Amino acid sequence: MTSPAVRAPRSRASRAGRGALVAVAALAVLAQGAVIAGASWAVANPRPVTDAVTVWTTDLDPTIERYAADAGLSDRGRFLLAASLPQILPAERFEQFCTVSAPGIGVLGCYTLDDARIHLYDVTDDALSALEPVVAAHETLHAAWDRLEPQERSALVDPLESALAALGPDHELVERIAGYEERDPDSRIPELYAIIGTEIAGSATDGLGPILEEHYAAYFDDRSRVVALAQQVQTLFAQLDEQLRQLSARVDELSARIVSEQQAYRTDSDAFAADLAVFEERAATPGGYRSQSVFLADREALIARQDALRARRDATNALVDEHNALLVELEALNAEAAALNQAINVVAQPLEETAPPPEGAVETDPSGG
Predict the structure, then answer these.
(1) 107, 125, 154, 369: which one has the fewest Cβ atoms less than 10 Å from its Cβ?
(2) CA distance 183 to 31
(3) Across the strands, what pairs with 110?
(4) Rounded distance, CA 364 to CA 4, Å?
(5) Cα–Cα dist 217/207, whole Å
């Protein structure tokens, strides 16, 4: 009578790139560079003449023209975008203009105050195509803020704070804005202005309030278009993040269950082996069994225990198979998250490591055969 080994799950050490889950940077994909955060927002005078000359003498990149259309920018919004001489840059060039050293922050654009230009990160992943018009519109609002008079900015502070408060204390924007403030307290209102204008939908009744809705209407023919694009991308990252967390939790749950089953299996297998040895010694000893019926009863009881152990082994091995299949799925999903993070210029931020996996196979061969 034998009870074959229970297979061991693949160890976490064997998982390519799986030392820790990749945290999807859903809350920071539109973060701006330190160039804005560290600069003064005060501008002495508007620049209508300079802007007009720039727009009249410069052809806008057709790709950026498409961003403007997709974002629902108005003529005024398009004008400010063009006046900011926007350029789409690959990673190595983009970092010359827009930088921020913070894990989990995806810097995709910035408006540099010294030259009043917009710089856009070249997002090449087709799954994130909706993101580029949002970033372009976001930076356009920074250009708009740069041209507002001090009294116009002051008049927007309370409506912006009210719009943020209306989202509730648990809204992700609260934490995001706190991150901006931590780097530069002066960035709070300018960033609220750009983010709320491009990411926060108005309700069917009063929107963000008449002051903000009327203000943003100068830059958007249909602001709901850019908000929809922003929400599309946020949903993509939120769903992927939730999939990662749920899958990792299931892997950890199975790991813990397998460890428990293996430990119990070892204990019961050892007990079975000991009882089997006693039975075999007794059966081999003359007079050990004086009754055939008692011998057969003991033998049948051991066979039943062996069959039960084999059933438990098979059930545990099925859990191992499920664990390993989920591990492969988790690796693929983790790679997808890493690729998306890279596509949005994010340095991956690991989540808390999950529970250690079961280690080592359970080997039982109580009959010695």
Answers:
(1) 369
(2) 12
(3) 119
(4) 6
(5) 12
Residue 278, Cα to own-chain centre: how many angstroms? 58
Calpha distance 276→270 (Å, rounded): 10
Helices (H), the chain: 34-37, 48-57, 62-70, 75-83, 91-94, 131-147, 150-166, 172-183, 188-199, 210-216, 223-284, 292-343
Among 113, 180, 173, smallest CA distance to 147 is for 113
Q: What is the pLDDT of residues 46-95, one digit of tens each?
A: 578 889 989 999 899 999 999 999 999 999 999 999 999 999 999 889 98
Check if the beta carbon of residue 349 is closer than 8 Å to that of residue 40. Answer: no
| Distance between CA atoms of residues 174 and 168, nearest Å | 8
Question: In terms of C-beta density within 10 A (0-12 exposed, 13-18 middle, 19 or more buried), how is residue 29 classed?
Answer: buried
For 209, phi then psi, to 5°, come to 105, 150
One-letter-per-residue 3-state SS of 29-79: CCEECHHHHCCCCCCCCCCHHHHHHHHHHCCCCHHHHHHHHHCCECHHHHH
Answer for the pair 123, 132: CB distance below 8 angstroms, yes or no. Answer: yes
Give residue-wise pLDDT tens across range 111-130: 998 899 999 999 989 889 99
> HSE of 171 in the Cβ direction (CA atoms, 13 Å)?
13
Distance CA(290)–CA(171), nearest Å, equals 79
User: Rounded distance, CA 354 to CA 85, Å?
Assistant: 47
State how far the Cα of 160 lies from the Cα of 209, in Å rounded to an integer: 10
Spatial separation of the C-alpha atoms in residues 74 and 218, rounded to whole Å: 7
Is the pTM above the cut of 0.90? Answer: no
In the structure encoding, which two tokens stand for residue 167, read together? Answer: 């989202």
Residue 40 near residue 190 (C-beta atoms within 8 A): no
C-alpha 9/C-alpha 153 separation (Å) is 60
- What is the three-class DSSP state of 224? helix
Q: Which of 8, 12, 10 is nearest to 356 (CA)?
A: 12
Question: Measured between alpha carbons, how far is 82 from 95 in angstroms, rounded to an integer?
Answer: 22
